[in-house]
Design goal:
By secondary structure, this protein is of the alpha/beta class. The protein is about 30% helix and about 30% strand. Helix 4 packs across helix 5 and helix 5 packs parallel to helix 6. The longest helix has 18 residues. About 40% of the residues are buried.
């Protein structure tokens, strides 16, 4: 059973008097536990695909399934509740609240879950700050942290809801090479240790090299599917207009 599946997804935007097709008839399936990169040039549609997988955006046509349950057509409130319980997000600009401490930033998404009480919130904040190596920085404000530390806080925040899937949009773009590599290694360790699914939208070749699966998007179409076989990439060129990939975890 796939964790996420998109079938025949097309996304069009109005740009002035023009209609722009960001995605054109995409069919893909993502199994639980993958560490997968969606790559492509700017404007290729990769971030749009990431947003549809995360139910931030909705397709113009096509269907989206989470745990084999169709979510297409659900209300904005229903989609928001689904995201809050299943999906963690990591952004290139970190998106931390500047007036909250690191611990408060990690706790924030838990405040949207009434079933998670104060003591459980405290435990989760402490646990995931420890997972990312920032337990000593819990009371620091974002402007007191380096870029790498702020991204670690963002990772801890994404993990705090105990998500099935983490979506990362260019998470290394604003980090230097050394820091970016350490952040990627941390996320890979989390993927292996907790089985958390990671899907990246990225230009970064380091992300692609570390991924278990690769989807290359060009002009709104799937141009290439890739998987690691004996630590070597095996590319599979799609043969249909609506290519499909079963991205099994290794």
């Amino acid at each position: 059973m796939s964790l996420v599946r998109v079938e025949g997804v097309t996304k069009r935007y109005r740009l002035g008097e023009q209609t722009v097709t960001a995605l054109d008839d995409i069919t893909l399936s993502f199994e639980e536990g993958v560490f997968l990169a969606i790559a492509g040039p700017s404007g290729s549609g990769k971030t749009t695909l990431l947003n549809i997988i995360g139910c931030i955006d909705t397709p113009t046509q096509g269907r989206v399934f989470i745990d084999d349950k169709e979510v297409t057509g659900r209300s904005p409130d229903e989609l928001a509740d689904l995201r809050a319980r299943t999906t963690g997000f990591i952004f290139q600009t970190f998106n931390l609240f500047p007036v909250l401490t690191a611990a408060e930033n990690v706790e924030y998404p838990l405040l949207q879950l009434p079933e998670v009480g104060r003591e459980e919130r405290r435990k989760r904040v402490a646990k995931f700050l420890s997972v990312v190596g920032l337990e000593k920085y819990a009371d620091h404000m974002p402007n007191q942290l380096s870029g790498g530390q702020r991204q670690r806080v963002a990772i801890a925040r994404a993990l705090a809801i105990k998500p099935r899937i983490v979506l990362a949009d260019e998470p290394t773009a604003n980090l230097d090479s050394k820091t970016g590599s350490s952040i990627l290694a941390l996320m890979k360790d989390i993927n292996r240790h907790y089985g958390t699914t990671f899907i990246f939208s990225t230009h970064d070749r380091r992300v692609m090299a570390m991924a278990d699966r690769l989807i290359r998007i060009e002009d709104g179409h799937v141009a290439m599917l890739g998987m690691k076989v004996n630590n070597q990439w095996k590319a599979v060129k799609p043969q249909a207009r609506t290519p499909s990939v079963a991205a099994e975890a290794q």
